[in-house]
Amino acid sequence: MKYSRLSFLVLCISLLCLVLLTQARRHHTKNKHTHHHKGSHISHPPSSSPAPEPAPEPELAPEPAEPPYNDGDPSNSSQVFDVRKFGAAGDGVTDDTDAFKMAWDTACQSDSAAVIIVPKGLSFMIQSTIFTGPCKGALVFQVDGTLMPPDGPESWPKNESRRQWLVFYRINEMSLQGGGLIDGRGEKWWDLPCKPHKGINGTTLPGPCDSPIAIRFFMSSNLTVQGLKIKNSPQFHFRFDNCQNVHIESISITAPALSPNTDGIHIENTNVVEIYNSVISNGDDCVSIGSGCHNVDIRNITCGPGHGISIGSLGNHNSRACVSNITVKDSVIKVSNNGVRIKTWQGGSGVVSGVTFSNIHMDNVRNPIIIDQFYCLSKDCTNQTSAVFVSDILYDNIKGTYDVRSPPMHFGCSDSIPCTNLTLSEVELLPATGDIVSDPFCWNAYGELQTLTIPPVSCLMEGVPRSILDNNDKGYC
Ligand SMILES: *[C@@H]1O[C@H](CO)[C@@H](O)[C@H](O)[C@H]1NC(C)=O
Ligand SMILES: *[C@@H]1O[C@H](CO)[C@@H](O)[C@H](O)[C@H]1NC(C)=O
Ligand SMILES: *[C@@H]1O[C@H](CO)[C@@H](O)[C@H](O)[C@H]1NC(C)=O
Ligand SMILES: *[C@@H]1O[C@H](CO)[C@@H](O)[C@H](O)[C@H]1NC(C)=O
Ligand SMILES: *[C@@H]1O[C@H](CO)[C@@H](O)[C@H](O)[C@H]1NC(C)=O
Ligand SMILES: *[C@@H]1O[C@H](CO)[C@@H](O)[C@H](O)[C@H]1NC(C)=O
Ligand SMILES: *[C@@H]1O[C@H](CO)[C@@H](O)[C@H](O)[C@H]1NC(C)=O
Ligand SMILES: *[C@@H]1O[C@H](CO)[C@@H](O)[C@H](O)[C@H]1NC(C)=O
């Protein structure tokens, strides 16, 4: 009795093994087949697919074997998820949102590191989407093709957010990378009648004017954005809010000089940020640094045309703003409304401190160096006594040319809370064309020159004003 039960069990197990083995074999051939099919598919892209690059290469770039994905390090293999396997068409017309969502969900649940592939040579149209974490492992979002949203407000689904397109939410450890293009198709958004001078006869009409940010990272950490080209966002190209540990490298952002509100990279409440080796030209700030940012390092970026690198605006609606330890160095700013700017509204509080602008070349920039504590977008901002305290700002080795419509240096600081410890060293600015503007502007600005400047600055006051020494509230963050 005992014996026969055991043999029955053995029989069952053998049968099970046989079934599993056959299935595994089938699965294997199926994988092989789809892989082959994919290869032939990509070398003959549908003729309706708008080519993202001028000369699409007929040859496939060597693709990682799959699975496992191997990046050269044999100990490092990742699961690979090609969006086409989830039904994405990549013809530039079909709505591929669901395929991307499925690829995301599958990759996100993958136990090992996962790579989502957006293949080269194809264009994927996807709607506003929130890619949500946390995911089980690290993710690579490898964009080698083109990603784009619906074309303009008319084609935007009525029930979808008009404030953001691609959102990455609660992600830890992700790299958005590749040689592909993210095309924001912003043209129709910039021309809405509510945008500056786009109404009838050059007016600006009232009304809701929401336009989507192309890529937003929210409440995420350990992020890398590398290699990509991003163009023509309807609004900001990138926004990072409430993030930690952000590394941006070798990206290019382009939009026309007259495209409204198309900031390149906006960060706020985000700490430990590196922005390196990138090129940004657009219609607004190249990089804008909002409240709650600390430990930001920007190196070797080329900005312009555009509005330059900006800390602020801060302190709007009497808010408290805290920004510290920001470095911008080894960079070029050309044909821009501003160079390096700190702007705050009257009535705010908090501190901007520990900012270094070093080794920056200005090329035909209006307001190359500017602190504006009277920032105001309407005509009726009233004078208020509180202000964001601006202190410990170093301008070192800032050379080049300025647009003579404004003085090359402008330090407009609050009456009640002056700026302190501004340091100028090796600042040499000459007119791009026309006559030298010999009067840098200072208002309640305290600091020192470490070297003589061109043009000479004689309006900085020495020491620390009484109001700062007496004010116990200043510097509270
Ligand atoms: C493994 O590969 C992924 C994708 O290329 C990469 O992001 C990660 O840093 C690698 N990890 C290690 C330990 O090499
Ligand atoms: C909007 O409507 C479409 C179609 O009914 C639906 O698939 C989608 O989930 C909706 N989106 C939101 C954010 O509700
Ligand atoms: C726009 O300007 C033209 C020429 O000045 C004028 O005839 C027309 O009435 C204006 N349209 C509106 C809506 O103001
Ligand atoms: C990610 O960032 C957090 C802090 O934001 C850090 O504590 C953690 O170690 C990081 N994780 C990895 C895997 O790097
Ligand atoms: C600076 O960035 C550019 C890309 O904009 C790159 O080609 C160059 O190699 C970088 N320079 C250094 C020293 O890293
Ligand atoms: C300032 O930020 C840099 C990174 O940009 C970091 O290495 C440094 O430790 C920070 N300094 C302070 C005092 O936090
Ligand atoms: C506000 O303050 C500035 C600087 O002190 C002064 O020039 C301006 O006249 C003031 N405006 C009003 C409305 O009091
Ligand atoms: C003035 O600012 C510099 C940075 O620009 C800083 O190193 C120095 O400690 C500050 N001086 C005082 C007295 O706070």
Automatic annotation (TrEMBL):
Location(s) in or outside the cell: Secreted, Cell wall
InterPro entries, per the entry: Glyco_hydro_28, PbH1, Pectin_lyas_fold, Pectin_lyase_fold/virulence
Annotated catalytic residues: H307
Compositional bias ranges of the Basic residues kind: 29-41
One annotated GO molecular function: polygalacturonase activity
Gene3D superfamilies documented for this protein: Single-stranded right-handed beta-helix, Pectin lyase-like
Region Disordered, residue ranges: 29-77
The keyword Transferase appears for this protein: no
Bias (Pro residues) ranges: 47-67
Residue stretches in coiled coil: none
Key words, A-Z: Cell wall, Cell wall biogenesis/degradation, Glycosidase, Hydrolase, Secreted, Signal
PROSITE patterns: POLYGALACTURONASE
Signal peptide range in chain numbering: 1-24
Pfam name, any one: Glyco_hydro_28
GO terms (BP aspect): carbohydrate metabolic process; cell wall organization
Family according to the record: Belongs to the glycosyl hydrolase 28 family.
Matches recorded under PANTHER family: PTHR31375
Record-given protein name: Glycoside hydrolase
Organism: Trema orientale (Charcoal tree)
